[in-house]
Amino acid sequence: MQTPETVEVTTGENPQGSVIWLHGLGADGHDFEPIVPELRLPTNLSLRFIFPHAPVQPVTINGGMAMRSWYDIVSFDSEGRADRAGVLASSDLLDGLIAREIERGVAPQKIVVAGFSQGGAVAIHTALQTEHPIAGLMALSTYMALPEDAESAVSRKDLPIFMAHGSFDPVLRMEWGRSSADRLIEAGYAVDWHEYPMAHAVCPQEIADISNWLSAIYN
Description:
The chain has one domain: Alpha/Beta hydrolase fold, catalytic domain (Rossmann fold, 3-Layer(aba) Sandwich). It has helices spanning 35-38, 84-103, 118-129, 174-186, 204-217, and strands at 6-10, 17-22, 47-52, 56-59, 65-68, 111-116, 136-140, 161-166, 191-196. By secondary structure, it is of the alpha/beta class. A hairpin with a 5-residue loop joins strand 4 (56-59) and strand 5.
């Protein structure tokens, strides 16, 4: 499978870990590129941030308009909104990026998968199903696209999981994110859940919390 084009940002020489971060619907790999310096990570922590571009494809809820999308969204409902084949295909792309980082010399235990909104849904699925023992999962303003696959997850139950959502989110209601977190907890995972008074976005306090979480992961 072809590896997607990516944007890369490193915080120092000889990165000791990698963060693969997927953007949301209609955005691209540059969307979260500016957030790296805002994280204000410790100067002795060198990471490689990888922001892949989603493929361009028609999206049903947008009238079939073609845009960067990790999978087709077929409805506005919380259940059955995600095109299963598309989620699995993008999950394979993300798993391929994990494998590429391993080939570049990064241990799987030093690789975090992350995503916002639609990208977060792919990140969740991949983190649960990959056979690579990754360092952690960061899922922002998102939900489980394929919740029925939670019980078949192969990842270890002590996988560090950071989930965050805005309480005023009009795009993906916070209840969707909270119910996905609860489903993960029921499946045996410990979820570090955060709520912020914001819409479908990222806020300064969330950035600070992400920085602290990443610092702890790579400590």
